[in-house]
Amino acid sequence: MAKILIVDDEVGIRELLSEILRDEGYDILLAENAGAARAMRNAGRPDLVLLDIWMPDTDGITLLKEWAANGQLNMPVVMMSGHGTIDTAVEATRIGAIDYLEKPIALQKLLAAVKRGLQRPQAPGAPAPLTLAAFTRSVPLRELRRRVEQIANSSRVLLLRVGTGSLAELVARSVQSGSPAWLDLSAISVPLDINQLQATQGGVLFVGELARLSRAQQKNLAFAVERLDRYDLRVVVATDRNAEGLLAEGWEEALVSRLFEVSLAPPSIADVRDDLPELASQILMHLAEGGEVPLRRFSTAALNQLRNLPWPGGYAELRAAVKSLALGTLEEEIGAADVRRLLPPDAAAGSVGVSLDQPLREAREAFERLYFEHHLRLEGGNMTRLAEKTGLERTHLYRKLKQLGLQAGRRHEEG
């Protein structure tokens, strides 16, 4: 028999609905708030959800948006409210709810809505790509999402000023406003044609690092930028170079000027390290929903291990690591020991790789270089935090990095 999750903060409503539906032969799961609903939905895999709109911690519309954003809206959801409006019902339907019931809920309307929902065929295909909308508990990621949406409403071009630990792809996916169409221009080496732009109409063109584009790929980018309005496209590009650097490498001035019209410096993984457990958990859940990995969960110790890794490859590296862990772990829970396998043997053993068979001055310089390289990666190039971490005054820190031949990170100087 079908499994139904009832989400309502009023105990009387939960008891009444569960009694009615159990009498009809359904298996019932109960949740008193959005937090419990998340856990029940992930563990119980309900066939249908009855979701109250007005709840104390997170309202039902927000939870519905969250499920839609991270690819979890693959079960029918019927919204319930005693204070609903037509606008609320329309919004819920637009997000993905299949029905809307007003309280007090008549018995026949309840049973009819449940029957229609369970008879509705599941949407085929993979879940929608993971976007910033999935991370509702992270203040920095919520603020980043609002900035990205605000820019996307006014500009078809967004340049992301990024460095180590980039979240560029996650940001770019969040620009998609309805169409799932996505084209990575850095993966195309032949001349771009009109047919490819037509196939991506309404979607997003992405470049993970401008500096890696060949001359031919730069021409593809220029070709696409000239036709954004015609095909309702947005382009999101990322780079750690400035405009002068690209011009010095031979880029066309007109294209560089267009790309640098609107830019944003999103946080790196190091900047949102405290939110990394949520990032990793949502990625794992999204991979499982898409059938790419078996159902798994992280232990608290495993999440702490992940949080303490530097992730210089950013979002792509983290996603690949989560997928590898889920596929390589035999138990349902991914533990700290599984995560430690991600570390190279020398790092796991605590070795710093400095030869002791050399004069003290050279050994000290080699150690300092490794030390500062490690903390530059860990802090995502943030010089304010690096100064705090090393206990050096900023001027002395810059001088030391220059002496060691290391590039001083100047992004996110405000800390």
TrEMBL record:
Membrane spanning residue stretches: none
PROSITE patterns: RESPONSE_REGULATORY, SIGMA54_INTERACT_4
Any one GO BP annotation for this protein: phosphorelay signal transduction system
Any GO molecular function: ATP binding
Sigma-54 factor interaction domain boundaries: 134-327
A Pfam family this chain is assigned to: Sigma54_activ_2
Keywords: ATP-binding, Nucleotide-binding, Phosphoprotein, Transcription, Transcription regulation, Two-component regulatory system
Residue ranges annotated for the Response regulatory domain, each copy included: 3-118
Domain of life of the native organism: Bacteria
Residue list for modification 4-aspartylphosphate: D52
Coiled coil residues, start to end: none
InterPro entries xrefs: AAA_lid_NorR, CheY-like_superfamily, Homeodomain-like_sf, HTH_Fis, P-loop_NTPase, Sig_transdc_resp-reg_receiver, Sigma_54_int
Protein name in UniProt: Transcriptional regulator
Source species of the chain: Thauera propionica
